[in-house]
Design brief:
Its EC number is 2.7.4.6. Pfam families: NDK. This is Nucleoside-diphosphate kinase. Belongs to the NDK family. It comes from Chryseosolibacter indicus. By secondary structure, this protein is of the alpha+beta class. The chain has a single domain, classed as Nucleoside diphosphate kinase-like domain (Alpha-Beta Plaits), CATH 3.30.70.141. 40% of the residues lie in helices and 16% in strands. The protein has 7 helices and 4 strands. It has a 4-stranded antiparallel sheet with strand order 2-3-1-4. Helix 3 packs across helix 4. It is globular, with a radius of gyration of 14 Å. It starts with a strand and ends in a 7-residue tail after the last helix. 36% of the residues are buried. The chain binds adenosine-3',5'-cyclic-monophosphate. The site of adenosine-3',5'-cyclic-monophosphate (CMP) has 8 residues, from loops. Adenosine-3',5'-cyclic-monophosphate binds next to loops.
Length: 138
């Protein structure tokens, strides 16, 4: 057992058929998948999910991009989940992501950066509950 984080594989990585490769790296790094589905956001739902970035210059583009195709949200469990998962995915900008990280391997750009990872335990809980109800978490 451990604590939890939230992630979603973004449209660029889903469209590139990298769901299996990314999920394999996540499991090999010791994370247990608690919940998983494939879905697609509307622009409005993407706006709600990323409401904390509302005032950022990239917000509108981000919402258009995140609703442009299917995504694969997941809840993950591991000791020290939030911090360890952010290490596994690497920096937001793939040019700055360490070799071997998921963004280094799969991201296309700072926006189409393959995967999301929650930045705190509180946000992990909020973001996981955005996509999953309690009877989808095992
Ligand atoms: P994510 O970790 O999901 O959180 C916000 C997202 O905004 C980020 O990943 C990127 O997909 C996107 N984004 C686009 N441009 C930028 C930028 N300049 N700085 C940070 N995030 C950006």
């Amino acid at each position: 057992a451990g604590n939890r984080t939230f992630t979603m594989i973004k449209p660029d990585a889903v469209v590139a058929n990298n769901v299996g490769a990314i999920t394999k790296l996540i499991e090999e790094a010791g994370f247990r998948i608690v919940a998983l589905k494939k879905t697609q956001l509307t622009q409005e739902l993407a706006g709600q999910f990323y409401a904390v970035h509302k005032e950022r210059p990239f917000y509108k583009d981000l919402c258009a991009y995140m609703s442009s195709g299917p995504i694969v949200p997941m809840i993950l469990e591991k000791a020290n989940a939030v911090e360890d998962f952010r290490k596994l995915i690497g920096a937001t900008d793939p040019k700055k992501a360490e070799p071997g990280t998921i963004r280094n391997l799969f991201a296309k750009s700072i926006e189409a950066n393959a995967i999301h990872g929650s930045d705190s335990d509180g946000n992990a809980e909020i973001e996981g509950n955005f996509f999953f109800s309690n009877f989808e978490k095992f």
